[in-house]
Design a protein that fits this description.
Protein name: Aminoglycoside phosphotransferase domain-containing protein
Shape: globular
Helix content: 40-55%
Radius of gyration: 16 Å
Organism: Aspergillus homomorphus (strain CBS 101889)
Pfam families: APH (PF01636)
InterPro entries: AGP_Transferase, Aminoglycoside_PTrfase, Kinase-like_dom_sf
Number of strands: 4
Number of helices: 5
Keywords: Membrane, Transmembrane, Transmembrane helix
Number of domains: 1
Order of helices and strands: HHEEEEHHH
Amino acid sequence: MWAFLLLTHSAIMQSFILSFGDIYLLRHARRLSAKRSLTVTHADLCPRNIIVKNGKVAAIIDWQSGGWYPEYWVYTKAHYGMVNRPDWYEALESAIARYDDEYEAEQALWEQCDQPGIPLHFSGQDN
């Protein structure tokens, strides 16, 4: 089962990257497709989904995107759309493992999208 999930993620990522048809993107994609452990994660960790009570995390809500993701996903995904929140980044950096190489590779890919952080539909239709 683990091997299937890992291969499925890798195949999806490669298909996405190859759809751009750009060797520049392929170079960055290789950095993301390195073998990584899969882990259960929230997949949308951001301030609006963290409830704090008396200075401590009381709950993490909105698990609709949760699932099995590569170990770097929590770190890279937490950077989507949080441009003006230096306090968020500071807390994030001290709370979870950093994956700077993967983050840099994803940034290069996000820049190719019309709106970084928003899913891109190649066919113009929602599937």
